[in-house]
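Need Glucanase's 3D structure for a figure. Predict it.
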Amino acid sequence: MFCNILIVSSLLAVVHAQQVGTFQPENHPPVTWQRCTSKDNCTTNQRSIALDANWRWLHQTGSYSNCYSGNTWDTSYCNTNIDCAQRCALEGADYQNTYGISTSGSQVRLNYVTDHANGRNVGSRVYMMESDTHYEIYKLLNQEFTFTVDVSELPCGLNGALYLVAMDVDGGIANGTSNSAGARYGTGYCDAQCPRDVKFIKGLANIEGWQLSPNNSMSGAGNHGSCCAELDIWESNSMAQVLTAHPCDTPTNTMCTGDACGGPHSSNRDAGPCDPNGCDFNPYRVGNASFYGPPNKILDSSLPFTVVTQFITNDGTSNGTLTEIRRFYVQRGITDAQPSASLNGLSGNTINSEFCIAENTLFQGPDNFARHGGLAKVSEAMAQGMVLVMSIWDDWFTHMLWLDSAFPPQEDAKKPGVGRGECSRLSGDPQQLQTSNPNAYVAFSDIKVGPINSTFNNESVQTWPASINPGILVVLQLP
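Structure prediction for Glucanase:
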């Protein structure tokens, strides 16, 4: 993700804790997903989701007093990373009433704003669980990942995201100091932005060096960041969507310090051990403005649709190295391939090394993707297994313009790579969104994982030419 969202609440603090409270039982909402071996042979897995620790109430052990309120730590109670880890407790969650999170069968619904007895919650981030104490680990080399999504109520400036990160399967209990909460309470988050707004990293608090956000009264950043490889299968709203791969020098969870973290909280965004921008495929950004959006587009974002992502290896086995990421969409019984890029100097409709090099050259990027190992490093993370994350968030740093508008906003939208979507450069202010669109939500359902071409109807796929004309299509028969 481009950056992180925090919960807004008058009494429930926004924190990442290691000790466990006893005031609210932690009951993970149930959800199902399917493992397929062929189109007609899928097995349903009974699973659950867990709320990320950054959204939970952090309080003094044995007391209702907060350890962290607004964007400020209570330094009179604890003032070091070790002390706060040992003296602050992470509480269980009332998923629906406090956080606007609900499940039904295979569906996970995340509401944007939820008013409750103790204040207001904004956004959320949840993880798929394999058990009550461990995250589900997905190994997707030579596999495809399929899900259905409803983004019809997500306006400009919001992001309903489904992605993978190389977190510790137990939430860091085995590797962390004083971490008794673990995956059950959503600990251990990391991504390629090396976020420094995470309140606890590897079992230690992030209070030392904590600086308040200049524009978000509920956020801040500590000295430490939490880094790991990230695979953004889906970041979107009703106006724009993007698929992005983010490599890191060390794919699994590592802790960084200060400006050496890079990402949004550092003076040099590109200074960290990961690629914060990644190699991305946004149909609009690569020249296909007619493909995705409201009803007049080919893929109608006002209705649910299914997204299929295939991870192709060099030898066609799960032991190979990732060389290509392919994308298909299914809506109204019609399967569309990802449209081809339509810019001079950029072609193709998949993410591969050639595409990433050409994209970086055309868009005049810093070449972080290649510098941090490219698809080979993403492949290392995938081989070890990654945790599935689903979230809804707004963006205090850039107002989500990097996803759905012109970014950087001062650049000419006609310059290659600047135009990302049709949203206004003035859109996306979180304060305005929380007032104007509190009922926004995203819903993910029907997650399926299996061998290539096992989770969707691939018998007749429409492929759109580089210059999209809805009246012209090519039907491709896949093997």
